[in-house]
Amino acid sequence: MGATFTSQRGITLVNVNLKRWIPRIVLIAAVAAGTVFLVMKKPWAKGETPITFQTVPVTKGTIAAQVTANGTLSAVKTVTVGAQVGGKIVNIYVDWNDHVTKGQVIAKLDELVLSSEVAQAAANVQAAQAALNKAQVAIVDGERQWKRQKGLEDQKLVATMTVEGYEVTYDTAKASLVAARAGVAQAVANLDQAKLNLSYATIYSPVTGVVLSRAVDVGQTVNAGLSAPTLFTIAEDLAKMQIDTSVAEGDVGRIADKMKAQFTVDAFPGKTFEGIVRQVRNSPTVVSGVVTYDAVIDVDNKDYVLRPGMTASTTFVLDQVTDVVKIPNSALRFKLSRDQMQAIFASFGGRGSGGHRRGRFGWRRWLRRRLGARAEVQDGCRWQARLRRQEAGVEARRRRQAQDDPHQAGPVGRLVDPDDRGRPRAR
Fold first, then answer.
1. 82-222 has which CATH code?
2. What is the pLDDT of residues 156-196, one digit of tens each?
3. Based on the number of CB atoms within 10 Å of its own CB, is 173 exposed (0-12), middle (13-18) or buried (19 or more)?
4. pTM over 0.90
5. Separation CA 342–CA 345 (nearest Å)
6. Which residue of 84, 137, 316, 348 is most buried, as measured by CB atoms within 10 A?
7. Which CATH number applies to 237-323: 2.40.30.170, 3.40.50.720, 3.10.450.50, 2.60.40.780?
8. Which parts of 155-252 fold into alpha helices (H)?
C-alpha cells in the first residue's frame, strides 16, 4: 500500500505541477507570437511612398534664348516741386493723382512777412534816391564855389591854398554822387529780390502731368534756409514709362539698344507687356561685390494700367527659332534611381515576351517603348546617345571577355540583370 500510495502521490504531484504551468506556457507562447508578428509586420512603419512620374509629349514650337532681369517702373520724367522761400502754407489746391497743367497754381504760402520785406525794400529805394539828389546838389554847389575861388585866384585876391580846399570839396561831391547812384541801384535790386521772394510764395506746377505725392498739409511751416523742401512730386506723362533693370555683368554684353523686351508685373498675373531697350548705361552698380548695369526700357502705357514703382520681371529676347522639336531640359537631365527602376519594372511586368528577365540596359529600351518615346525624339538627344554609348561599352567588354576566356564570359552580348547578380547559376 505504501508503494502504491507513493506512486499515486507522485502522479498526483505531477498533474498538479502541469496544471500550474500550462497557463504560464500559453501566456509565454502568446507573447512570443505577438512579438514575432510585430517585428515582421512593423505596423508602426510608414507605407512605401508610391513612385510617380510626370511625362510630357514631345512637341514642336518656338524656342528662344533669353536673359532675365528685375527692374522698377517709373515715369520718363519726374519733377520734384519745392519751396524757394520759407513760410506757413495757407492753401493747397491739388491732391494725390490730380492732373495739373504747366503754370497752374498748386499751393500758396503766407505772404505777410514777404510783403513787409517788399515795403521795406521800397522805402530803401526812396532813401537812396534822396541821397542821390543830395549828392547832385552838393556837386553843383561844389563846382560853383570852386570856379568862383579860381577866378579870385587869377586876380590875386585869395591864396592858392584856399582854392585847393574848394577843389577838394568839389571832387568829394563828385565821388559822393557816384556812391549815391550805386546806393540807388542796390536798393532797387533789393526791392526786386523782395518782390521775387513774394512771387515765390505762390507755387506753380512746372510741367503738365499727374501729382504722384504730396508731402505737406495746410498750416505746416516749411523752412527753405538750407535746402528747398519737397512739397509735391509730379510725373510729366504716365502714358510713356520706363523700366530701370539691373542686368548682371555676365549678360550685359548680349543686351543692345533697340532690342525687344517682355515683362510681367504682379498686379496683372498672366499678362505680358512689351518694351524696347532705349539705353544700356555704362555706369556700374556694385552691391556686396555684385556688379550690375542699368538697361533702360521704354514702355507704352496708353491704357494707364501700369503705375510707377511696380516691380517688373523682364525678359530680353536674344534669339528665337520656330517650328522645332521641344523637349524640357528637366527630361534631358533626369536619371532614374535603382528604386525607380525596380518600381517601373515591377509595375509593367518584369519579364519580356520571351520569358527571360531583361538585361541591365534592356529595361531602358523596354521603358522607352512603354512611355511612348518614338521617332519624335531625334538621335541627337543627349540621354539617348548616353544610353547607346553605355550599351556599346558593355557589349565591347563582353566580347573581350569572351575572347580571353570563353568559358567564363558567357554568351557574347548577353547583359546581366542587376537583380540576378550574385545568384548561383546551374551548371
1. 1.10.287
2. 777 777 777 777 887 888 888 888 889 899 999 999 999 99
3. buried
4. no
5. 5
6. 316
7. 2.40.30.170
8. 160-200
